[in-house]
């Protein structure tokens, strides 16, 4: 059995970026990282653009201008404006080459077909020049840039509809157990509804990993070996829940051993989630999480999250850990470090009742985990505690 710190370091050192390339529609590229530099095919803006509603002026020495027309955003004509003339113009519209400046409408007084301005303005005032954001052929975004909503909007404004990004991992979630049935079926005596697969799938979707398949295995050794072998061959990451302990019908560990998966570690000194397994075969990572839901989700956030980030070239990113003031008393039993389900708000954190590894109800209202190290046996109100913020 190893420590939490040792387990985290092993995951960090043994998970690497996938580095494969895939092409995605721009609207489906959120959360990906650019595989290569992106260069602009156009000037942006592609024309002189009005920065606000007002009047485009051909400057002269006076303060009065003859109004000769109007240009809206999207109009594709360019009127010729003589000295001392102006056109009404709106934000985003193309400014004619014969206009020197745009004056905002609040500084103009209309008198019939003429306007009076308060004072002379400088040339190019309130005009966005061609290529102000980026010029044709220039670097628009660097390789490895994460595609946020703003980045997607920016690239879309350059006319880009598809983009080259790093491949995200293909992921299999495997649940084990004869007692597990799907929610659409009637619950029989001795059975429980399977929930871990939906829970982990939701956690992955929330992190923008969508290439996820779900597989169910009965407590059968040969079926376990066959199914895991197929998934390890075809997936980048296999997440198994249940069957990793040492009971008579826990076949996952035996199956992984037969398949010659390299074991990086098995069992971590922590609560919940002691029977955690992490291994690798060729380029596929395998995490076998405990079957109890709260333990499985805790291990996902502490360990699998790091592996996912590394696979996406986000090196060794963990969930944020902050110091918060405890609003609760808590006494730890045993010597194992513990992750406690909690609610964080405005610098304070409340440790919840119901910390059993099987308790999903408590986890359902949590937005944080309070970490209690092995050196600490109790938490008192107003104590500072290490708090892990969950990505909800």
TrEMBL record:
<comment type="pathway">
    <text>Cofactor biosynthesis; molybdopterin biosynthesis.</text>
</comment>
<dbReference type="GO" id="GO:0046872">
    <property type="term" value="F:metal ion binding"/>
</dbReference>
<keyword id="KW-0501">Molybdenum cofactor biosynthesis</keyword>
<dbReference type="InterPro" id="IPR038987">
    <property type="entry name" value="MoeA-like"/>
</dbReference>
<dbReference type="InterPro" id="IPR001453">
    <property type="entry name" value="MoaB/Mog_dom"/>
</dbReference>
<comment type="function">
    <text>Catalyzes the insertion of molybdate into adenylated molybdopterin with the concomitant release of AMP.</text>
</comment>
<keyword id="KW-0808">Transferase</keyword>
<dbReference type="GO" id="GO:0005829">
    <property type="term" value="C:cytosol"/>
</dbReference>
<dbReference type="InterPro" id="IPR036135">
    <property type="entry name" value="MoeA_linker/N_sf"/>
</dbReference>
<protein>
    <recommendedName>
        <fullName>Molybdopterin molybdenumtransferase</fullName>
        <ecNumber>2.10.1.1</ecNumber>
    </recommendedName>
</protein>
<keyword id="KW-0460">Magnesium</keyword>
<feature type="domain" description="MoaB/Mog">
    <location>
        <begin position="172"/>
        <end position="310"/>
    </location>
</feature>
<dbReference type="GO" id="GO:0006777">
    <property type="term" value="P:Mo-molybdopterin cofactor biosynthetic process"/>
</dbReference>
<dbReference type="InterPro" id="IPR036425">
    <property type="entry name" value="MoaB/Mog-like_dom_sf"/>
</dbReference>
<dbReference type="Pfam" id="PF03454">
    <property type="entry name" value="MoeA_C"/>
</dbReference>
<comment type="similarity">
    <text>Belongs to the MoeA family.</text>
</comment>
<dbReference type="InterPro" id="IPR005110">
    <property type="entry name" value="MoeA_linker/N"/>
</dbReference>
<dbReference type="Pfam" id="PF00994">
    <property type="entry name" value="MoCF_biosynth"/>
</dbReference>
<dbReference type="InterPro" id="IPR036688">
    <property type="entry name" value="MoeA_C_domain_IV_sf"/>
</dbReference>
<dbReference type="InterPro" id="IPR005111">
    <property type="entry name" value="MoeA_C_domain_IV"/>
</dbReference>
<keyword id="KW-0500">Molybdenum</keyword>
<dbReference type="GO" id="GO:0061599">
    <property type="term" value="F:molybdopterin molybdotransferase activity"/>
</dbReference>
<keyword id="KW-0479">Metal-binding</keyword>
<dbReference type="Pfam" id="PF03453">
    <property type="entry name" value="MoeA_N"/>
</dbReference>
């Amino acid at each position: 059995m190893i420590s939490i710190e040792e387990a985290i370091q092993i995951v960090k050192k043994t998970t690497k970026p996938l580095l494969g390339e895939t092409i995605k529609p721009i609207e489906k590229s959120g959360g990906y990282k650019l595989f290569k530099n992106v260069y602009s095919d156009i000037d942006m803006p592609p024309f002189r653009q009005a920065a606000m509603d007002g009047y485009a002026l051909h400057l002269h020495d006076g303060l009065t201008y003859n109004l000769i027309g109007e240009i809206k955003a999207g109009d594709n004509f360019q009127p010729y404006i003589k000295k001392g003339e102006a056109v009404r113009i709106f934000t985003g519209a193309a400014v004619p080459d014969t206009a020197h400046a745009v004056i905002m409408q609040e500084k103009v007084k209309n008198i019939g077909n003429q306007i009076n301005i308060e004072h002379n303005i400088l040339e190019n005032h309130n005009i966005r020049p061609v290529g102000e954001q980026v010029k044709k052929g220039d670097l628009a975004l660097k390789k490895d840039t994460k595609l946020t909503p703003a980045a997607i909007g920016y690239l879309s404004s350059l006319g880009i509809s598809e983009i080259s990004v790093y491949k995200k991992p293909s992921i299999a979630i495997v649940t084990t157990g004869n007692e597990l049935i799907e929610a659409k079926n009637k619950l029989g005596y001795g059975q429980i509804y399977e929930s871990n697969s939906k829970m982990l799938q939701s956690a992955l979707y929330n992190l923008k990993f969508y290439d996820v398949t779900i597989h169910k295995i009965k407590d059968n050794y040969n079926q376990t070996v066959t199914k895991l072998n197929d998934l390890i061959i075809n997936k980048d990451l296999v997440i198994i829940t249940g069957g990793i302990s040492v009971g008579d019908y826990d076949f996952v560990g035996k199956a992984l051993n037969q398949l010659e998966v390299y074991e990086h570690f098995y069992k971590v000194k922590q609560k919940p989630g002691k029977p955690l397994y992490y291994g690798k075969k060729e380029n596929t990572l395998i995490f076998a999480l405990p079957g109890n839901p709260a333990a499985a989700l805790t291990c996902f956030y502490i360990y699998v999250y790091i592996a996912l980030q590394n696979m996406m070239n986000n090196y060794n990113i963990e969930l944020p850990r902050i110091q918060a003031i405890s609003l609760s008393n808590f006494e730890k039993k045993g010597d194992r470090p513990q992750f406690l389900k909690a609610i964080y708000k405005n610098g304070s954190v409340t440790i919840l009742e119901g910390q059993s590894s099987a308790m999903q109800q408590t986890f359902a209202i949590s937005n944080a985990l309070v970490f209690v190290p092995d050196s600490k046996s109790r938490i008192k109100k107003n104590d500072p505690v290490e708090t892990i913020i969950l990505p909800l």
